[in-house]
Amino acid sequence: MIPDEKCTTEYKLLLVGETHVGKTSILLKFTEGKFDETHITAIGIDYKIKYITIDDIKVKLLIWDSAGQERFHSITQNYFKGAHGIIFVYDITKKESFENIKEWIKQAEHSATKKNYKKIIVGNKTDCEELREVELQQLVNLATKKKCSYVETSAKTGHNIVEIFNLLVSDLIKSSNGNMSVNGLKLDDIKEKKKCGC
Ligand code: GDP
Ligand code: MG
Q: In the chain, how many H helices and how many E strands?
């Protein structure tokens, strides 16, 4: 089905985090339902589009992958420009990738241009429980301190992958409070229109 543009609000989301934590894998699992253990590491995807419906609101997501910009300060300010939501990804089996999240959050704070952008911290690779180096409680503590949502995921099994986007988009919709204008329509109007079969 081709989505009706008039009924669609659009959000720009970014995936950031160290190389090898699973950013591209999360993106591909979410948008295409695929997981590839072998060769995707080297592939850089600019962005992918996915439509989801939350609270009766059809949402167009432009999800950007940050291949090649994974070292601090090599990521350009432009990448953060206009982002509505940022997904900070670490690998639960690599303590350092978790420690680095604090730096990524700092960098986003410097560079993001939208005032009320939403953040979620994602601990990926829960299927590798036996290699875990970061406890869930550490994630909860950091997320609470930085006022972020959080979730643990596995791009391999698909565990909580959809939830990343549901949590982030629900947060965005909530904070827009029905007052945000999308293509000239308020979200409340869009909900109303939707009831009329739009
Ligand atoms: P990126 O550099 O952050 O984009 O990471 P990739 O998506 O390229 O993933 C890096 C490596 O980790 C690849 O070999 C993936 O197959 C693997 N990987 C990604 N997510 C998971 C996961 O949830 N579980 C496991 N076991 N491996 C994963
Ligand atoms: Mg990648």
A: 7, 8
Q: If you average pLDDT over residues 122-139, what whole number do you get?
A: 98
pLDDT 10s digits, 33-87: 999 876 565 555 688 999 999 888 899 999 999 876 666 555 667 788 899 999 9
Residue with tokens 């900070």: 88
Distance from Cα 2 to the centre of ligand 2, integer Å: 28
pLDDT band at 116 (very low <50, low <70, confident <90, very high): confident
CA of 65 to the centre of ligand 2 (A): 7
- Tokens for 14, please give them: 């970014």
Q: 58: which 2 tokens?
A: 């059809």
Strand duo 181-182 + 149-152: pairing: unpaired
Question: 68: Cβ–Cβ under 8 A, 6 or more apart, which residues?
Answer: 44, 74
> Which H or E element spans position 50?
strand 47-54
The closest of 170, 190, 179, 158 to 11, measured between CA atoms, is 170
Pick the atom of ligand 1 nearest to 19's CA. 2
Q: Which residues contact 59 (CB under 8 A, 6 or more apart)?
A: 8, 9, 10, 11, 51, 52, 53, 169, 173
Give the separation between CA 85 and CA 112, rounded to whole angstroms.
10
